[in-house]
């Protein structure tokens, strides 16, 4: 799998920039990569249900004190949670267990009503289970599709400061759209339906 430097060099190569040898190089391109890499990694992780970043936790117990007002309990999410995908109660978990025993690979819809509030979720139950996208910092764990999407996103964000070209930005953003879709389509082939999180891929920012 690719290192952080290799991902940066892939992005810089698309921009016609010389490669770097370390993320801490004094070169401006390296400084830009260093300043943007982690923020963009988390943004791309949030865009879809990448299999390498999927985690589960639970049962989570209510925190005390609970909400200042309104119904339900608050449940602290894991500290590495970027995006909560599904919250389930014990009856949902039991249903899923029986579904998988019957040989099905898709999660049924949860009946639990919930919403995210900061680094917690609120729900009117006594315990919850959560499936989420985790912050994955080790590039060795990235899938090939994610690596390509990450490099394209980095290239798009660095295109203006490096090339000062709106045309290059448009080109790199379209490349990102394609790489993201390609990567998530590969995830779809592994037994899950992975929705893209937002509509931002259908427009240029």
Weakly predicted, low-confidence segments: 98-105, 193-205
Mean pLDDT: 87
Query: What share of residues are in beta strands?
Result: 15-25%
**For the largest beta sheet, what order do the strands appear in spatially?**
1-6-3
The Cα radius of gyration reads: 20 Å
Number of domains: 2
Strand runs, count: 6
Class based on secondary structure composition and strand pairing: alpha+beta
Largest β sheet strand count, sense and barrel closure = 3 strands, antiparallel
Helix content: 40-55%
Counting DSSP H or I runs of 4 or more residues, the number of helices is 5
Strand/helix succession: HHEEEHEEEHH
User: How far apart are the first and last residues' alpha carbons, in Å?
Assistant: 30 Å
Principal-axis shape equals elongated
Give an overview of the whole structure.
The protein has helices at 4-14, 28-46, 90-101, 144-163, 166-188; strands at 54-60, 73-76, 81-88, 114-117, 120-123, 128-134. It is α+β, with helices and mostly antiparallel strands and 205 residues long. It has 2 domains: 4-48 and 143-202, no CATH class; 54-134, no CATH class. The strands form 2 sheets. A 3-stranded antiparallel beta sheet has the order 1-6-3. Strands 2-5-4 form a 3-stranded antiparallel beta sheet, with no helix packed on it. Helix 4 runs antiparallel to helix 5. It starts with a helix and ends in a 17-residue tail after the last helix.
């Amino acid at each position: 799998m690719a290192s952080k430097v290799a991902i940066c060099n892939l992005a810089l190569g698309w921009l016609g920039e010389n490669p770097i040898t370390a993320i801490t190089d004094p070169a401006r391109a390296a400084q830009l990569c260093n300043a943007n890499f982690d923020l963009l990694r988390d943004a791309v992780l949030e865009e879809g249900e990448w299999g390498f970043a999927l985690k589960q936790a639970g049962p989570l117990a209510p925190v005390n004190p609970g909400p200042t007002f309104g119904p339900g309990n608050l449940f602290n999410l894991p500290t590495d949670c970027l995006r909560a995908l599904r919250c389930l109660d014990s009856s949902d978990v039991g249903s899923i267990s029986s579904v998988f025993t019957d040989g099905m690979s898709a999660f049924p819809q949860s009946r639990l009503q919930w919403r995210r509030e900061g680094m917690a979720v609120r729900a009117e139950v006594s315990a919850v289970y959560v499936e989420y996208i985790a912050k994955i910092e080790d590039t060795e764990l990235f899938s090939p599709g994610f690596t390509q999407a990450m490099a394209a996103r980095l290239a798009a964000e660095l295109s203006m400061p490096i090339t000062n070209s709106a045309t290059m930005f448009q080109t790199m953003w379209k490349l990102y759209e394609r790489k993201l879709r390609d990567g998530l389509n590969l995830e779809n082939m592994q037994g899950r339906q992975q929705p893209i999180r937002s509509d931002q891929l259908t427009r240029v920012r």
